[in-house]
Amino acid sequence: MRRRPFILGLIWVTAMLWLGLCVTNSFEAFLGLSFIVGATTVTPQLMLPLVADMAPAHRKASSLSITTSGLMLGMLIARLLSGIVANYTSWRTIYWVSFGAQYAILILLFFFLPDYPSKNPDGLNYFRALWTIVTMLFTEPVLVQACLIGFFISAIFTSFWTTLTFLLASPPYEYSSITIGLFSLIGIAAICGGPVYGRLIMDRYVPFLSSVLGQVVIFVGCVVGAFTGEFTVAGPVVQAICIDMGIQTAQTANRTSIYTINAKARNRVNTAYMVCVFCGQLTGTAVGNRLYAQGGWKYSGGASVGFIGLSIIITMLKGPRETRWVGWSGGHKLRRDDVAKKPEPVSPEDGRGTMRAEGEEETTGEKRPETGADHSVAR
């Protein structure tokens, strides 16, 4: 399926369903529409594989980092806006704002989103596509490792931001909803630095390095926040910065890694990964709420420490260049050696209007004259 009409159609359907959320007075209808909207609001997960398809190999990681930064920035700004709006107006107001934002996105993409060809021109049917997703979870060690890491770090993210509201609204803080919403601003600086890190580090080193570094940062933040959050607000501030920075780094590393599995199946690979991420988010919300109700901030924070500990163990079971499920036989080299050379402009005679990597063979069928040949013969 061509991605332009599919993406535009999904946004339009989501916006129309969202209108029902804005006007309905029935709780059952609201729940039903929310469930359907959750199934159609998948446009970001279609854009990420598209970015991986478009970006050159030596800029893939930094390009994904920019896109991931926008995705996380959107979630944080949504928390900020909802806190401010809920403090001064009705809860429906933020739904109307979201409705307008979706139509604004639809209009912008209608004019600026190019029409890319289908990655499945042979017409792989829906059920076979679903089956290939299942089989990849049993045949692709890189994907399974990334899914497990994504599950645990996503659980940490939702557990923290959900229980943080309870912590800041209770003694000794007793902050208002607008003040709690302003906490979202804490992670913006860390997220905005993601593209710079992606350009300097991720484009040059294997994803394993960034994944480990990101998880270590999350671990430090969880430990500091869990044991200091109840008596100083500095603990949650440090934890928020570390979690946002670490999760963005690890998520980008995971996607850079899994998008190398099969260039023609990046949407299916991304689907498998995001299912695990969403399951982690649901698990983190449920576990965080339950543990906070039982034992407070330390209980939920302790669960986050346990989650990131398991994630780091899973990461270290498989080396940066290991192709099997477990082991380090592939070596310890962290510098990337599979990145294409910087592209050079294609000459006007090529007529393709694109960039070609150095040493890449032409596909026009015309043979180029060899360098160093004696052109005096042509006279």
TrEMBL record:
Domain of life from the UniProt record: Eukaryota
Residues annotated as domain Major facilitator superfamily (MFS) profile: 1-379
Disordered: region residues: 334-379
Cross-referenced SUPFAM superfamilies: MFS general substrate transporter (SSF103473)
Listed GO CC annotations: membrane
Compositionally biased residues, Basic and acidic residues: 335-379
Membrane topology qualifier: Multi-pass membrane protein
Subcellular locations according to the entry: Membrane
Keyword Transmembrane annotated: yes
UniProt KW keywords: Membrane, Transmembrane, Transmembrane helix
Primary localization: membrane
GO MF term list: transmembrane transporter activity
Membrane-spanning parts: 32-52, 64-88, 94-114, 126-157, 177-198, 205-227, 299-317
PROSITE patterns: MFS
Protein name (record): Major facilitator superfamily transporter
Taxonomic lineage: Eukaryota, Fungi, Dikarya, Ascomycota, Pezizomycotina
